[in-house]
Amino acid sequence: MTIAQVAERTGLTAHTLRYYERAGLLREPPDRGGNGHRRYTERDADWIRLLTRLRATGMSIAGMRRYAELARRGEDTYAARKELLEAHRAEVLGKIEQLKDDLALVEYKINVYDKLMGDS
Fold this sequence. Notes:
Layout: H1 3-10, H2 14-22, E1 31-32, E2 38-39, H3 42-56, H4 61-73, H5 78-117
């Protein structure tokens, strides 16, 4: 796949894909065609989709880089990768709980205004 095709499939820009490569976030740099253009595999696209989910859940670039470094080192790092993801999961769950609390306050205030305005 070309960089444009991967960008379309992942929702990232070509600029971001190049940044991810420079930042060491990919398992391995994509192969280059005879014209020097990047050629991505389905495995590359799957990895990039994982990165987008990790980023969307708040993982830092440093955390993503650490995960990629571990993945490049192979099967010996399964336990370390799992530990990193478990720590990230705990952070995400904490954020979800905070968001639930924040949402409850917003809903409370909406109900207050409903009562003040006679909507309920």
